[in-house]
Amino acid sequence: MSDKELPKIGLGTWMLKPQAARFSTIEAIKMGYRFVDTAQSYGNEKGVGKGLYEVLNGGIVKRDELIIATKVHPLRVKPKFAYKSTLKSIEKLKLDYIDIIYIHWPAFALGYSHENTLGSLSKLVDDGKVKHIGISNFTAKQTEAAIKACDKPIYANQVEHHPYLQQTELLKSLNEKNVNFISYSPLGRGKALKDPIIIDIAKRNKVSSAQVCLAWVISKGAYPIPKATSLDHIKDNYASLELTLSQEDLEKIDEITRIERYVHPPVVAPKEWKKRFQNKELI
Asked: pLDDT digits over 226-236, tens only?
C-alpha cells in the first residue's frame, strides 16, 4: 500500500463534459494540483485520461506524484461488475493503476454488499491495479460495517460537506477510525458563497468566498475537491491553501444554522439521511 500523503485540495470533475475535464485536469496539474477525482457515472473518465496522458508524457509531472481516484457506478456494484468496470476505468484513464477506487453509493438495492463488493475491490489491490479502497456517501454505521467486512483498510469516505452541511458527527467518527474525509460540493453548489457570514469573512480577509469555504473545510482536517472549469476558478480554489482563518472566523462559520443537503438521489442514497435530515440533525 502506498503511504503517499493525500494533497490538501483536489480537483473535482463532477458534471464536466470530457473536453472540459481534459482541460481542467491539465491546467490544474500545471498549477500544482496533485489530486484528481472522477467517477464512472460522470462520463468523463476518457477526458480526464487524455489530460493525464498529456501531463505525464509531457514531463510536467511524474505518475507517483499524483493521486487519481474514480468510483464504481451504482449499477456496477455487484462484485463481478465492480472488478471489471474498475479495470475499464483504468484503461479510460490511460493508467496502469489508480490510487483510490470508491464505491460511489451504498446501493444495496442494486446489489451492493459490504463483503462481496469490497472483496472484489480487495482483489484489485492484490493485483496491483488499485492502491486504496474508498467509499462514498456512506453513513458512520455503514462505514463501520465496511471496515469490518473488508480485509484492506478503508482509506476514505467521500461525502457532501460545506458550511450548510457540516457533518460534525461523521467527521468525528471517521477521524476516530483513521478514515480520510473527502469533501465534495465544498462550496454548497455555490449557495454558501452567497451567505452573509461567508461574504463578510471574505471581505475582511480580502479573499473570495470560495477560498473562505475551502479554508474552513481544510481546517476541519477534510480534503475538498471543488469542481472548476476556468483558469481563474482553478487558481482561486488552489489559493485557499494560503488562507488561514482566525479562530473567530472559523467559529462564526461553525455557528451557521442553515442546513441543506443538495445531493440526495433516490434508491441509492442512505435511508437514514432522509429521516435524520427531517429532524434537522447534522450527518
From this structure: 999 899 999 99
Q: In a 10 Å sphere around its CB, with 0-12 CB exposed, 13-18 middle and 19+ buried, how is residue 144 labelled?
A: middle
Q: How many CB atoms are closer than 10 A to CB 178?
A: 10
Task: Give the separation between CA 172 and CA 110, rounded to whole angstroms.
Answer: 29
CATH number, domain containing residue 239: 3.20.20.100
Residues 14 and 66: their CA atoms lie apart, in Å, by: 19
Q: Which domain holds residue 140?
A: 11-278
How far is CA 270 from each of CA 108, 142, 167, 253, rounded to the nearest angstrom? Answer: 9, 9, 15, 27
| Of the candidates 252, 247, 163, 172, the residue with the CA atom closest to the CA atom of residue 210 | 163
Is 4 part of a structural domain of the chain? no
Q: Are strands 35-37 and 98-103 parallel, antiparallel or unpaired?
A: unpaired
Minimum mean pLDDT among 160-164, 240-244, 271-275: which range? 271-275
Q: Is 102 a catalytic residue?
A: no
If one counts the domains in the chain, the total is 1
Q: Which of 42, 83, 184, 223 is catalytic?
A: 42
